[in-house]
Design goal:
Immunoglobulin-like; mainly beta; 50 strands; about 750 residues; five-stranded antiparallel β-sheet
Length: about 750
């Protein structure tokens, strides 16, 4: 059971009660809203009826009229085809309700339903006289007050009737006895008797036999008495205030005070209240006793004033004196700042405070401390230490309150948000320095230096350019730079002192100065390196000289002209030459020869060589070979062959040599004894002793033979081992023009000196 869901009896009853309360409240609320709506609808209908009655009175002079008459005469529109108007509150038909016109010619809907049993309206309930009281001009009597007496007369609704056929009796509400029996009633005497004030309802009765006509009452109001100004004061007139209050006590025995004016008189005298029309006066609202009025007028401007009051009849009275007001200050004091508008790099003290040219400054409250002020201004100071052109007042100085002597207060800053400080402690920024040669292809001494100067505050006044910070020329910023906001793009033609082609490293120093007016301006300096062109760095080819090396890679020495300056250059070029190895081409120089491996007869022996480069005579190692030999030591040696004593036919052209020469045709050494007429006697050993003649053209220097054997004959030849002697003429014996070097021969160590060959021991 406990797990089943449902409502208990108590819960159901509680819900019913709550629901009933809600429904009751809802019904009550709806009923109240509906009642308010119906009440508003009735007020609108009532106002429409009263306005229609006022229009009907204007046309007919009937002061009482049924709603039904207004409908039938077309002054009102009925709710439906039955030509009735109903009260929306209870559906009561309003047709037989009477609308009455009061003395103010305002309609008022009655509360009594004058309907008869037959449904018609009771005609006896409305009395509309056949006669009415009008003015002498025949027009209706004004509901307002007259300033002077008027004459009353009778007017028939039926214009056919003759007024002369009737006798007249005039009475009033305040004088029910017969006042006069004249056809017209001049109120002059009554006016005087009542002290120039009449506020009475007058009646007239006309009699002609049995015909008696009575008019309805006609109220006449006449006031010829001027109001009085009993007192006029301005409290605190000598004290500074935001405004003044004029206090006036005015009385009137007649119509009552209706309006007044407090008028400011200008310097030309215009503005006097007496000259101002009544329609411009200030109306006094309805009060219980308009004959004794207290007026208060707020004055907000200084000046000279006049005061006038008027009663309802239009009688005006002017206060006897003018009123001078000069202690009004409705202008709040001004938040004032004494600013700096000249750039400086020194701390700037800004004055802030109050200015009031009316009542003057009274107080300045800043950071919960109040300073009493005197005079038209009052200041405190705030010192700025950081760079600002214009500083936000709220975030730097902060808020402060100023008050003038009239009590006007202002919390500052009000409309002004920033104050001019013009404090610049930041150095200018120099960037984008570029040095470009005025020549297209090389770094000339004639350059153009471009750079950017930036200053976000005071701006740049000038700059200096030179070889150091202290050695520079000041330049006009406007002539050399284009300004775009805080950025200055500058360009200067600059000539270095170093000569063109020197290759010197130079530096350009740029110093920028800002626009502060202190003795020492904010400045910054930056430098830029510039390497001048080195002469002969860029050349044009003229011609080559010899290669720098004989082998192993060299370059040509070149005769060149500087491409830019036109000067001559002798430089190591970049064209390779003699790239082969020095030892790729060698010659052999006999170093030593071993002994023959046979003591008598044919054998062989080893020869050792030193290898030298044919390019540069550098040492390239060793080599060896074997040669045949014939050792005849201890063997029989035949006598030397007898050469032809005159191999060339004799004559005086014979030259004795007795030395080794190379048989170039056979690459063998021959012993040449004598040569005559181009033919030489020779002896040789080629396994055997031989001799004969040979053409002189076929012999040459012995070193031209790759082999020194078989040597020249006999003991004098020495087997070829001692050939090529340079005992007598070492330079001629050792010089080889084909190579241009000195070659050592066996037994001698030769070297080239001063184009001559010098051998050891010689």
């Amino acid at each position: 059971m406990r797990n089943k869901k449902g409502f208990t009896l108590v819960e159901v009853i509680s819900a019913i009660v709550i629901l009933s309360i809600i429904i009751t409240l809802g019904v009550f609320s709806i009923t109240k809203v509906r009642s308010n709506i119906l009440e508003k609808q009735y007020k609108n209908i009532k106002l429409e009826i009263e306005l229609a009655a006022e229009k009907y009175y204007s046309d007919t002079e009937s002061k009482e009229v049924y709603v039904d008459t207004l409908i039938k005469e077309g002054y009102l529109k009925a709710d439906n085809k039955s030509m009735t108007i109903t009260d929306p509150r209870d559906k009561t038909i309003l047709n037989c309700y009477i609308v009455t016109i009061n003395d103010d010619e305002k309609g008022s809907l009655g509360t009594e339903n004058n309907v008869l049993e037959n449904g018609n309206c009771n005609e006896n309930a409305i009395v509309n006289s056949e006669i009415s009281i009008v003015g002498e001009d025949g027009n209706k009597i004004n509901k307002t007050w007259y300033k002077s007496p008027i004459t009353l007369k009778v007017k028939f609704k039926d214009s056919e009737k003759d007024l002369n056929n009737y006798s007249y009796t005039w009475k009033s509400e305040k004088n029910p006895n017969i006042i006069t029996d004249e056809k017209t009633y001049n109120l002059e005497e009554t006016y005087k008797e009542r002290g120039k004030v009449i506020d009475d309802e007058f009646y007239v009765t006309l009699v002609n036999g049995d015909e008696i006509l009575e008019s309805k009452g006609q109220r006449v109001r006449i006031d010829g008495v001027f109001p009085k100004i009993e007192s006029l004061v301005v409290p605190d007139i000598e004290k500074w205030t935001k405004d003044k209050t004029l206090k006036v006590n005015a009385t009137d025995v007649g119509s009552g005070i209706e309006s007044y004016i407090f008028s400011k008189v200008n310097e030309d005298g215009d503005g006097d209240c007496e000259s101002i029309p009544l329609e411009k006066y200030n109306k006094i609202p309805d009060i219980p006793n308009p004959n004794d009025v207290k007026i208060e007028q707020k004055i907000t401007k200084n000046g000279t004033y006049t005061f006038c009051a008027s009663d309802k009849a239009g009688n005006k009275v002017k206060y006897k004196e003018t009123i001078s007001i000069d202690k009004i200050d409705d202008i709040p004091p001004v938040c004032s700042y004494i600013e700096n508008t000249k750039w400086t790099k020194s701390n700037v003290a800004i004055s802030f405070g109050c200015v009031d040219n009316e009542s003057g400054c009274a107080k300045l409250t800043y950071k919960n401390a109040t300073t009493n002020c005197t005079g038209a201004s009052c200041y405190k100071t705030y010192t700025y230490t950081n760079t600002y052109k214009a500083a936000n007042i709220s975030s730097t100085i902060g808020t402060f309150t100023i008050e003038d002597n009239a009590g006007n207060k202002v919390i500052c800053p009000s409309d002004k948000k920033e104050v001019n400080v013009y404090l610049d402690k930041d150095k200018p920024v120099i960037s984008n320095i570029n040095i470009s040669s005025n020549q297209l292809n090389y770094n000339s001494r004639y350059t153009k230096v471009s750079f950017t100067l930036t200053d976000n505050h005071s701006g740049i006044s000038s700059f200096c350019i030179g070889t150091s910070k202290n050695n520079c020329n000041t330049k006009n910023i406007n002539y050399y730079c284009n300004q775009n906001g805080n950025r200055y793009d500058c360009s200067v033609d600059y000539t270095f002192t170093s000569s063109d082609g020197s290759g010197n490293t130079e530096y350009v120093y740029i110093t920028a100065y800002d626009n502060v007016y202190d003795n020492v301006k904010n400045s910054s300096t930056q430098s830029k390196r510039y390497d001048l062109y080195k002469e002969c760095t860029d050349t044009d080819f003229e011609r080559y000289d010899v290669c720098s090396k004989k082998c192993d890679g060299g370059v040509y020495y070149e005769y060149r002209k500087d491409s830019h300056l036109g000067t001559s250059c002798y430089i190591l070029g970049n064209n390779p030459c003699n790239t082969m190895s020095c030892c790729s081409d060698t010659r052999k120089v006999l170093d030593s020869i071993g002994s023959c491996d046979e003591s008598c007869g044919s054998g062989k022996k080893i020869r050792y060589y030193r290898l030298y480069s044919n390019y540069n005579d550098s040492y390239c190692g060793q080599d060896y070979d074997y040669i045949g030999c014939y050792e005849d030591y201890g063997c029989y040696v035949p006598p030397d062959p007898t050469p032809d004593p005159n191999p060339g036919g004799g004559g005086s052209n014979c030259v004795t040599h007795n030395s080794n020469f190379c048989n170039t045709s056979e690459n063998k050494l021959y012993w040449i004894s004598i040569c005559c007429n181009g033919t030489c006697n020779y002896a040789a050993r080629d396994g055997k002793n031989v001799s004969g003649t040979i053409a002189e053209r076929l012999i040459s220097d012995p070193t031209n033979c790759s082999s020194y054997g078989p040597g020249g004959g006999g003991s004098s030849g020495g087997g070829g081992s001692s050939g090529g002697s340079c005992e007598s003429t070492p330079s001629n014996a050792c010089w080889y023009k084909s190579y241009g070097h000195c070659i050592s021969v066996e037994g001698y160590n030769c070297e080239l000196k001063r184009n001559n060959c010098y051998c050891s021991d010689h």
